[in-house]
Amino acid sequence: MAQRQVRERPVRERVVRMSVEQPLWRALTGYRILAALYAIALYAHGYHEYEHPLGAGAYMLLLAGWMAFTWRMVASAERCTKRFLIVDLGVAIVGILLTPLVDTHERIVDGGPTLPSIWTAGAVLGFAIKGGWRWGAVASAVAGVANIAERGAFAQNTVHNVLLVWVASVAIGYVVEVARASERTLARALQIEAATRERERLARDIHDSVLQVLAMVQRRGVAIGGDAAELGRMAGEQEVALRTLISSGLGQRGHGPAAGPVGGDALPVATVRIAGRAADAADDPGDEPYDLRALLAPHAGAKVSFAEPGAPVLLPGSAAAELAGAVSAALDNVRNHAGDDAQAWILVEDEPDAVIVTVRDDGPGIPEGRLADAEREGRLGVALSIRGRLRDLGGSADLVSVPGQGTEVELRVPRGRKDAS
């Protein structure tokens, strides 16, 4: 039965792939389309001012055709290849160098626009977003040389426009590089977080089954004596080694002071039975709503009083299983640390925004500092079996313990839209 409790279940993690540079690609797509329309509008407005308007019109047809077939190429980094960027920049350079051949010298001297006009900046920014600030700097330098060659001199307005495009491309390229580095760091952090949560889940299952069985074998072996005593000694050694392994793997993360009873060493038969039913709830296809009362009712007995609402207390199967596991861990602590004569009470409250389960006992309470000592010793009943479970559910586990007056653990699981029915 203990094996059934610790069987591996798929971790329900939702991985969201984010890309902070994707909005830049969308913006570049829109800019290229609008800039191409603007260049065509400028040509149409100054048609009669060109020395060779048909030659300028031929380039505009080339630009329109190029945009019609390639506007999707800058929709993402995967589609925007290096070869495309080179050809795209070539289309812009051809338009710039073609301008003196189709336009009048007076218009060029007066600072008239080149044939591609501001569309050239889109070709340059594509390099910056794709390859970073270095690619952007090289592409803007090539476009700048072409603009100066078209003008035939280092005119102030031409140099100003060239420097503006160069600074913009370098700045955007640098921002993209920083964003990509941040994405990689975030992805790595999310992987570490997911791995840590999975280790904690496995450690909880081990604590609730294997460790407690080993502790029980150790005590029974010592009580029986003979060969059983040697078996008990070996079981005790394995328990200590396993606790050390778990605590060393998880202790680095740190969760602050423990907030519940000390983890128990024994595994009552009722706990194993309930753990099996909890595993069934967690493995319920589709994570359908499960009545929490069915998981907690078997705890009731001569030493445990169980109070429940008259209506079903529905939670998703996985949430019900984790909450039931936390209650079992709390009752283990009562049995192992409050004494054989201790009485325990379980109270289930079904509120509109949360499900609250309170486990109270009339034992001697918990001495101050005992919880922190237990976690350092590798006894992770509170840190993992109780607090860890509730933390993963987005809930909380609060402890109130007065020496000589017992201990009370309040477990609160918030309701989501899924289980609000």
Question: Could you characterize what this model shows?
Answer:
- The longest helix is centred in the middle third of the chain and has 69 residues, at 156-224.
- This protein folds into two domains: 1-253, no CATH class; 257-414, Heat Shock Protein 90, CATH 3.30.565.10.
- The strands form two sheets. A five-stranded mixed beta sheet has the order 2-4-5-7-6. A two-stranded antiparallel ribbon has the order 1-3.
- With 421 residues, the protein is an alpha+beta fold.
- The protein contains 14 helices and seven strands.
- GO terms for molecular function: phosphorelay sensor kinase activity; protein dimerization activity.
Strand content: 5-15%
Q: How much helicity do the residues have?
A: 55-70%
How many discrete structural domains? 2
Radius of gyration: 35 Å
Question: Average pLDDT value?
Answer: 76
What characteristic shape results from the CA principal axes? elongated
Provide a count of the helices.
14
| Record field, number of beta strands | 7
Question: Kindly, what is the distance between the CA atoms of the first and last residues, rounded to a whole number of angstroms?
Answer: 32 Å
- Helix and strand succession? HHHHHHHHHHEHEEHEEHHEE
Order of strands, main sheet, comes to: 2-4-5-7-6
Main beta sheet, described? 5 strands, mixed
Model regions low in confidence, pLDDT < 50 over at least 5 residues: 1-17, 250-276, 282-286, 417-421
Structural class: alpha+beta
Domain Histidine kinase/HSP90-like ATPase: 318-417
GO molecular function: phosphorelay sensor kinase activity; protein dimerization activity
Pfam family, one: DUF5931
Transmembrane segments: 24-44, 56-75, 84-102, 122-146, 158-176
